[in-house]
Amino acid sequence: MKRLAVGGALGIALIALAMYPAYGTGYGNRAMLQIFMWIALAGSWNIISGLTGYVSFGHVAFFGAGAYTAGILIASRAWSWPMAAVAGGVAAGVLALGIGGPCLRLKGPYFAIAMLGLNEVLRALVSYFERLTGGGNGLSLPTLDATVPIYYAMGLTAIAVTLAARLIIGSRFGLRLMTIREDEVAAESMGIPTFRHKLLAFLLSAIGPGIAGALTARDQGYIEPLSVFPLATTITMIVMTLFGGKGTVWGPVLGAVVLFVAQEIVWARYPYIHPLLFGAIIIAVVLAMPRGVLGLLQLKYRLPRTI
Amino acid sequence: MPGGALEVIELHKHFGGVRAVNGVSFALERGRIYGLIGPNGSGKTTLFNCITGVERRDSGRILLDGVRVDGLKPYQIARRGVGRTFQVIRVFPELTALENLLVVTSGPRATAEARARELLAFVKLEGLAGEYAGNLSYGQQKLVEFVRMLMRDPSLILLDEPAAGVNRTLLNDLLEAVRRLRDRGKTVLLVEHDMKVVMGLCETVFVLDYGEKIAEGPPGVIQTNERVIEAYFGR
């Protein structure tokens, strides 16, 4: 019965979201697109960092890699944007496999710093290879108004990431990822190949941001190193996940929606001090409930792991 | 899974200038209970860590049923039938008692869950299956760790201070469980400070001091060995 009610509510929400572009304003569509993007980014970060405890401080690197892959393919090879979006996801996945080999052997803060470094390296590389990427001048894509189709593509990406999280967290694979967070030595001593598990989680956490980056590049029509590799994006996805509840399915979704809306309101009312106010909100939330909203509810009301 | 014979040959492990394990050799036969004793810092836990692959040995050989396992990763050694518990409890605190056991095996979930519930019932924790392991008492966590180690049905069982911090009743249950495992053909090696436990349970005892094996034999003989008395109480 309860399952049916939850399923029904989700179905209605999805139908409403699918019909939204027919009635929404330009601003509305754009705002929803942004929310979808944040759901995909925060949900992906949650898969590696929320579950295994390996805090990726450079996750925007996959977003940027996807953006540039798609941007170059669209601008110089005249690929269609859906194909370029797939290529963006693949590129991010390949990058994750390559970089995961050495980086996932690092522990704790060293992994976080290595990921931060990866992002800076990518940004420098993109700036350096001017002929391919336009360097610091950026890369302009041919004009195309595809906001509505991209709305759907980004929405599907957000759904896919959330669905993947639901399947992972509900499985023993997901529980094993959590054992890495809880006690990696014990996990390994119980026969769990932790490195393989981390690498797979890392790969899964890179694809969503790669696709989101590609779609964002197409939607905005212009990318530059600073706009697709900003540290602030990584921090935002971390904060959204922590706010909603790391390691939960719906935490990143909740965090993305609430914090995005809050940011829009604060930004519109107090344009000059909005970063300050936003920072204060973050500090208050992290201090008051380190497990996030759903983490707290989960503990208090014994909710299942898959919320 | 038959097997469970272990042979350690000339094992060395140094940390900087500290010779934690210094040329230790011994052999365990299948289906017996062995004790490993020695003063604090004599290298017992390091020896466990080398056998299970958590620490990489500097030199020497470790053979499980005649096959070298030194150099393998901890998960590979675990999959070859070596199970262990830790000196300081290492359950997964934010996983439930049941989940702590479930994560260990793959294969059909229903089979794994049936086995996990059976093992929890074996240590009378079936009522706490859904509780987070971190919320359980010390003794209960110790039991969860013990049965988690059994999930893979290991042939060689390494127990690091199973009696520490456990009340008498619980301890007796635990020791009875160890005996029953031995009767089923498991090999058990346990590190223990509680001499009563060692004397009552073990058939053969190895004594370490400063990383070297100074004695080996039945508990009664070991108790009167002069080098052993010297290691514990000084000259």
Radius of gyration of chain A over all CA atoms, rounded: 19 Å
Q: What is the helix content of chain A?
A: over 70%
Q: How would you describe the shape of chain A?
A: globular
Biggest sheet strand order of chain A reads 1-2
User: Tally the helices of chain B: what do you get?
Assistant: 9
Helix proportion of chain B:
25-40%
The averaged pLDDT of chain A comes out at 92
Indicate the proportion of strand residues of chain B. 25-35%
How does CATH name the architecture of chain B? 3-Layer(aba) Sandwich
Give the distance, in angstroms, between the N- and C-terminal Cα atoms of chain A.
16 Å
List keywords for this structure.
heterodimer; A: 307 residues; mainly alpha; two-stranded antiparallel ribbon; 14 helices; 1% strand; globular; B: 235 residues; alpha/beta; Rossmann fold; 6-stranded mixed β-sheet; 4-stranded antiparallel β-sheet; 10 strands
Please, could you describe this protein's structure?
The complex is a heterodimer of chains A (307) and B (235). By secondary structure, chain A is mainly alpha-helical. Chain A has a domain at 27-230. Helices cover 79% and strands 1% of the residues of chain A. Chain A is built from 14 helices and 2 strands. Chain A has helices spanning 2-23, 26-52, 60-77, 81-103, 109-128, 130-133, 147-169, 172-189, 194-220, 225-228, 231-244, 251-269, 274-288, 292-301, and strands spanning 139-140, 222-223. A two-stranded antiparallel sheet of chain A has the order 1-2. With 235 residues, chain B is α/β, with parallel strands linked by helices. Chain B has one domain (6-233): 3-Layer(aba) Sandwich (Rossmann fold), CATH 3.40.50. Helices cover 35% and strands 25% of the residues of chain B. In chain B, strand 4 and strand 5 (67-68) form a beta hairpin. The longest helix of chain B has 16 residues, at 168-183. Chains A and B meet through helix 8 of A and helix 2 of B.
